[in-house]
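Q: What residues go here?
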């Protein structure tokens, strides 16, 4: 593994710790999971960090102001919607892309819809959870 990728991993781990602390302190957050390549250990230098954030009022978080507070160097890149999921993408000064995905806790309701199942089965790491992700991933249904 290159020194650059090791440095990138350290930066990602620091970001994840900061997001965990934020989620624990913010009343409306029900769960946060790392998904995608970083979640299943297949990241490369060009990989982005994908976070799934479940909240009672995801639109209140989707403006990204909270993210800029924990990462002042974050620059908003784009917004998109994927069914019930609101995506906000940011680029950090280091070049790291961070994709924040917001939905209500019903995103993880059983039975899982095909999109949720695909995201979770591709690999995930629960960073913070008051219950919805634990239920969705229980009994070996999904995850690595």
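A:
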């Amino acid at each position: 593994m290159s020194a650059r990728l090791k440095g990138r991993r350290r930066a990602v781990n620091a970001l994840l710790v900061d997001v965990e602390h934020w989620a624990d302190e913010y009343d409306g957050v029900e769960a946060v999971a790392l998904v995608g390549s970083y979640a299943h250990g297949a990241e490369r230098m060009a990989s982005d960090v994908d976070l799934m954030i479940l909240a009672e009022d995801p639109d209140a978080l989707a403006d990204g102001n909270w993210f800029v507070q924990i990462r002042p160097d974050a620059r908003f890149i784009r917004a998109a919607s994927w069914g019930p999921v609101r995506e906000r993408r940011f680029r950090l000064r280091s070049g790291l892309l961070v994709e924040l995905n917001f939905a209500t806790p019903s995103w993880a309701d059983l039975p899982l819809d095909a999109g949720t199942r695909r995201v979770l089965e591709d690999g995930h790491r629960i960073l913070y959870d008051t219950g919805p992700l634990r239920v969705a991933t229980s009994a070996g249904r999904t995850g690595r």
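A: Context that may help when evaluating the design: The CA atoms of residues 58 and 122 lie 23 Å apart. The two ends are 22 Å apart (CA to CA).
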